[in-house]
Amino acid sequence: MVNTMASGTTRRILVETKNLSKDPPPGISAIPDENNCRYFHIVMAGPKSSPYEGGLFKLEMFLPENYPLSPPNVRFLTKIYHPNIDKLGRICLDILKDQWSPALQMRTVLLSIQALLSSPNPDDPLANDVATMWKTDEAQAIMTAGEWTRRYAVIDE
């Protein structure tokens, strides 16, 4: 019984992986690790018209043993100035916590994280200092986010 469930989970991961490579979300690449089909190397382009535009952000995504019953673990490896992402790269996003549903897929998660870059939510922060700056001096916060993007997320040719 357990093997059937495990193989079903693996099959779902393989199908989602194939779909991600065949039809990647715009501005996002998700490459499975060659040694672990549950671990993904993500590169996400900063959304246009955001302070993250022009940046390429590295993330990691790991699918737990009980995926899709539990959400994937995702974190930023690239340093980023954002109220919903802390200095360890952890992400405060409802679908990665209490709003997760097995109907959601890796693609949905990645697109939601990219959307979070366009629409920071300082009212539900993970980085309190950044959220305070976003609320008290949004122009300065956006400027700092842009500076960090240029410093940490722009890959020189």
UniProtKB/TrEMBL annotation:
Coiled-coil residue spans: none
UniProt GO MF annotations: ATP binding; transferase activity
Pfam families linked to this entry: UQ_con
InterPro entries, A to Z: Ub_conjugating_enzyme (IPR050113), UBC (IPR000608), UBQ-conjugating_AS (IPR023313), UBQ-conjugating_enzyme/RWD (IPR016135)
Family statement: Belongs to the ubiquitin-conjugating enzyme family.
PANTHER family in alphabetical order: UBIQUITIN-CONJUGATING ENZYME E2 (PTHR24067)
Name used for this protein in its record: UBC core domain-containing protein
Source organism of the structure: Ignelater luminosus (Cucubano)
